[in-house]
Structures are given as C-alpha cells and as structure tokens.
Design brief:
seven-stranded mixed β-sheet, 45% helix, Rossmann fold
Length: 253
Amino acid sequence: MNRLHDAVVQDQFGPRAAAYVQSAVHAAGEDLDALEAVVRREAPARALDLGSGGGHVAYRLARHAAAVTAVDLSAAMLAAVADTARARGLPNIETCLAPVEGLPFADASFDFAASRFSAHHWRDFAAGLREAGRVLKPGSTAMFIDVVSPGVAAFDTHLQAIELLRDPSHIRDYRAAEWEAALAGAGFRVRSTQMRRLRMDYPTWVERMRTPEAHRVAIRSLQQNVASETAAYYGIEPDGSFTLDTLQIEAAV
C-alpha cells in the first residue's frame, strides 16, 4: 500500500521509540557535547528540538534553557521523550506533534534551535530549514548535526542505497555544500562547521530499525560486492559495520 512520506516516518519510528531513547550512538557523542556547550553559552529562554526522535538533544537543551519544545512526527516518540524527561527530572520539556515543514508556532517564537540526525528524513529539506529560520528570533543561534554524503558519486550512491534499504523513511544524506546552500536560502549565516567520522555497528544499526531480513541480505550483498575504493572509504568490516561522515553546523539568523 502506498503511503505519504510523513506516514512512512511515523510507521518506522513509532514502534521503535524505546530503542532510540536507549540507542548509544544517539545518546552520546562529541557532537552532542559540542551542542550542549553552545546552548550553555547561549542560555536561551525558549529552545526548539526539530525532529526530536529519542529526545537526546532535548535533554541536553533542558539543562541550560528555560523551556524546551521537542517536535516530532511520531506520537509514540514524543510520549517516550515526555516519560524520559519526567524520569530525569526535566519538567521544562514540552512536546509538539508536527512536521518540521509546518511548525505551529508564531514567527520569532524561539531563541535557539537544534536538529540532530533528523534532516535526512525530512520530506522537504529546504522548507524545514525555512521554518526553523522563521520561528527563530533575529540573532538567534541554531545547531544542525546530520550524516552527510562525501560527494563522490560512487560513495554517495552506496550510502543512499544502504540507508534506504535499512529504513524506507530515509530521504537523503546531503553534501556539506548542499547544507550550506540550503541554510543560506533559509536566511541563516553559517558561523562554523565540524566534520566527524562515526562508526555504525551493523547488528545494532539494522536491529534498531528492525530492518527486514531481505533488506539486510541486500545491504550485505552491496557491501561485499562494492568497489574496493568505496569499501575502504567506509571502512566496511567483516560483520558489516562501517564508518560514515557527519557534519555539525553552527548558524545564526
């Protein structure tokens, strides 16, 4: 049965809410520490977490912001975030069920925004960034962190293929240049960027998304038959684990 993209996202992530709250690769990392350092510096009155998922950005924001709004398409994800926030003693987190392309907030409602490992699922990447810019007050800071394409055609094709096989809600891992162009088009000024390499443990990576066995077989076949240059770039290991690129962007409106 054909479904709209937002429904695909909800169906993929709703049943996996607990797995994303507990996910080690989402719950920690140098990028998350860097994000927290920026929000600590900014000490915003009202912060926004776009595509909250397991809520790991929201939990960090809540330590330094007076109020945090976690936005996601999945009601189950948001329920898990609310439960975890209560358990961690973070009463300043509220949740909002909405697409990033149509945020239900007035212009200039927030003075900080962040998004981590979410934008590659957005139905309309440019529209989501425009909405982020719209709801931020002039002069506010935003942090965006996501998996990025290395740009080389063969490497890009491999990455997008395995991402889609693992998760049909995947849209695209964009190149760094695409991020910068889209941010400029949305009215952001990039202050700084930081590239990192992130190892994905294959068994955990596919199990977290409950990837069907047929798709797991296809992913492993691609990995085992890919050109040596691509295998080397991603550091594909015997069990399918691999390393990819992430980009952290600090920007201002």
